[in-house]
Amino acid sequence: MEIKFIPSKNLKEKIQDESQLGFGQYFTDHMFIMNYQTGKGWHDPRIIPYQNINLDPSCLTFHYGQTVFEGLKAYRNQDQILLFRPDENFKRMNLSSDRLCIPRFDEELVLRGLKKLIDIERDWVPHQSDSSLYIRPFVFADEFFLGVHASNSYQFIIILSPSGPYYSSGLDPVKIYVEEKFVRAVPGGMGEAKTGGNYAVSLIGQVEAEAKGYSQVLWLDGIERKYIEEVGAMNIFFVIEDKIITPELNGSILAGITRKSVLELLRNQGANVEERRISIDEVVTAYQNGKLQEVFGTGTAAVISPVGELLYRDQKMIINDNQIGPVSQKLYDDLTDIQWGRKQGPAGWSVEV
Ligand SMILES: Cc1ncc(COP(=O)(O)O)c(C=O)c1O
Which of 70, 92, 166, 235 to mutate to test the pocket of ligand 1 (most atoms within 8 A of CB)? Predict the structure, then answer.
């Protein structure tokens, strides 16, 4: 399928001082869009000027949340622009779509559209180290009708946002609150899908955590509130007695691409890695016995985020003296070197635009 290009006549002024970019605040001149109609399938892929979307108030997405999204980045290595495992994002997006009864799209076509869009927007990819072009593909139901049903029409859009480091403080350890009252997802629910509802449901925990002086929430399982699931927008790892443990994929946590990459890197290095259920009590006991060496989160936004403090009930756990530990530091260095093209990663991880 041919991807048409309609150039913008009013190019925006670029942000000169890249240290002011922040996250997700600025958008480039163009966006990728295609439409779906029952009977016609996905059609008319095109790159058009970045613009508002005009929707009727009865649009299904506003009411019933039939929508999925992804998040990935493009990195600059001088004149080379690199994507990190974009095929994994589009694969996951189709899995999310399956759960939300959204029709699958052609992953090869969308990757081609993304590359073409970024090629057009090349100059928007930041130059400063730690800054990148954040990519947000999303699909939403756009049928105008108030009945609860799977929509007969959808839009697939990709927008691009030049962004600085996710945390302005860099690799400083974060403080995380273990949530016990509310849950994010339950077995059989949609926790594994990257869909707005999972983020809407987690806001209340985030508000509560912030009120207590913590920046993020660690979610426990939805049945026993005992087993560790994930953080708001990160998967979580624990280093206990030199074993690196992360909750197994159980259908209610997001299958993070950073998580998968970290596991592959660690296994290649011969590290002792375990993907299994891990309870909060096991973490507390390890902490009390002096065996909890490191805790870190993994995700596209922050790559590796060391956790300096965990609060569970009235047990405050200060981890590794609130310093980044050796496992987290090495993973951060290895992954960012690969993402920015300073080192060669495993085959297929870096995709040049
Ligand atoms: C709920 C949730 N878990 C985990 C992650 C980490 O996933 P990834 O490494 O693919 O960015 C994210 C971020 O996208 C997320 O939103």
Answer: 235
Are the CB atoms for 122 and 155 separated by under 8 Å? no
Nearest-CA residue for ligand 1 atom 5 is 234
Indicate whether 56 and 195 sit together in one domain: no
Are 333 and 205 part of one and the same domain?
yes
User: Which residues sit opposite 217 in a β-bridge?
Assistant: 177
Two tokens at 263?
A: 């596991």
Tens-digit pLDDT profile for residues 56-115? 999 999 999 999 999 999 999 998 999 999 999 999 999 999 999 999 999 999 999 999
Distance from the CA of 170 to the center of ligand 1, in angstroms?
18
H helix runs in the chain, sequence order: 60-64, 86-99, 107-120, 196-200, 203-211, 257-268, 280-288, 326-339
Q: Got the DSSP string for 145-183?
A: --S-S--SEEEEEEEEEEE--SSTTTTPPEEEEEE-S--
Instruction: Single out the residue in 135, 165, 195 at which a domain terminates.
Output: 165
Assess whether the C-beta atom of 258 lies below 6 angstroms from ligand 1.
yes
Residue 265 has φ and ψ, to the nearest 5°, of: -65, -45
User: How far apart are the C-alpha atoms of 231 and 295, rounded to whole Å?
Assistant: 12
Measured in Å, residue 11 CA sits from the centre of ligand 1 at 32
pTM (two decimals): 0.96
Same-domain status, 89 and 181: no
| Nearest-angstrom CA–CA distance, 216 and 322 | 16
Amino acid at 190: M
Treating both helix axes as pointing N-terminal to C-terminal, what angle do 257-268 and 326-339 enclose, rounded to 10 degrees? 110
For residue 71, give the ligand 1 atom closest to its CA. 14
Domain total in the chain: 2
